[in-house]
Design brief:
Length: 253
Amino acid sequence: MFRNVFRKSNLCFRSKRLSSSTASEASSSSSLIMAVTATFGTYMLADFLSNFLQHPTQKLRSPTQSLANSTFFFTQMDYGYLNQFIGRPVDQAFWNTRTQHIIGVAACLAVTDHASQVAFAKYLGKTLCFAKSPAAFVAHTFVFIFTGVAVYVAGDAALNPTVSNDKRMDVFLENTYCTYVGTNTAWFEPYVSPVLARVAGSAIAASWFGSSLLPATLAYTTVKGVGWSDWGNQGLNDHELRMNGLMKGSLEE
């Protein structure tokens, strides 16, 4: 009988302990989800802004003159379904557009960024910090960017309906190589905030803009620009080439 009483008491104690542990885990999970979501939003904005650095003549809204006569003054980017809201024709609503890239890459990077931070923190036995562990942080930067973009590339190669089945592996391998080339240019990302602190002050460097958005925007720019030669009139999809009068069958607004 005493054994049963002790067992019941022990079960109650364990139940309370598990409840407390469960609540703590739930709170931790909620915080992680919020952090990943915030990172996702930051990376989407960074990708969008990087397009202006890669294609500095682009304008958000199209002018009224014909496309053929305005090629030298701006570059029209293809945002798929959203084109109709900025006065541009829609070809593909989502696939092969800048919008697909903005959403897809940001989602993958947000997950791999936080997963890599957790993995490196467990390996180091402390929170990952560039000031205290610069080499590990640079390694983390390469790992999460390459892994995240590679996951996106794999998903695009497997699911994109505009890619024929016999070309999917070729598309995956080609873009994975581009990912590797581009990722090697992002080594500087952890140094952006410290350099900004020297130039503009620690307050700006420690802000969301200085510590997250600016480094991510610059990294997006070099990874896409170098990895896929996405500069100026290079790296444009077929619809962007037509919109800008660079391919036969140019569209007229």
